[in-house]
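Morning - zinc ion inputs below, output right after.
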Amino acid sequence: MYHYVRGETPRPPSGYYHLDIGDFRAQLDYLRDEFTMLSEATFRRCLRGEQSPPTDGIVLTFDDGLADHHEWVLPELRERGLWGVFFVPTAPLVYGRRLPVQRIHSLVSEYPGPELLDALDEILEAADIDLLGDVRSMYEGRDTADSVRQFKHLLNRAVPDHSVSGVLDRLEGQFPAAQTDVSELYLSASQLRDLSEAGMTIGAHTVTHPVLSDLPTAAQRWEIRASRRQLSALLGEPVDLFAYPYGGAESYTDRTVELVSDAGFTGAFTTVDGDADATEFRETPLTLSRRDCANVEHGDATFSLP
Ligand SMILES: [Zn+2]
């Protein structure tokens, strides 16, 4: 699993979970030399239960529909004849809107956590926004890592959905280096088609990248089904792979998995750390585990929190 992969670029987020292009190249060479890189045909046979995945099999996946994937990733995959799956949220493409998740990454990468958290407190208090859930305990620690965690938690889980964009607008007003243009950050429709025409597979990743487990069933169903419909329309072909936003065990429920199945998806990935082995393919193909490539060979060189 990859997210941001980039070389020198002026656009945020910088230094935040991004993998440097040099490390990415080294990883691809290492993976190709040491493991079996699955073709799409083999991967699909494994999904259909027609064969077991090889124990050293690798499938490359890229989340969030980032422009990085066209600019930096695609040339490297092409050069090596490798296949990958790209999970693309549709709101940037269909509505021209940046998603809270990347706006938060940009803020956190450009400014110190304690400053961001103080500003967020003030904005929430001034706007008298009612927070969801018990967040009082979140305010205890104030070192940088804690404050970043709290900042993200508040915006991702505690500020009601309809208030998040407005709060982020105000934060970016105070922290302008975090502002990015939607077209610089995300894949355009033509870049998406380039990926597809180069033999890559495009999978759904909802419309707005919410924590699905926080949503009522009808809203989950819409996020799942609309993203599939919108992507299929953009590509002119069906989309049958899915990845859960955030993807940790707490980010989806059994009901979510049912909705993913009902929508017609045949394979889905979580971000639960582990190997998608033969048992997972056979028994739980809609909750396949992944490994974050920030944590494998050549993967940790640029990970840092401000
Ligand atoms: Zn994502």
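Note: The chain has two domains: 5-97+185-295, 112-174.

O.
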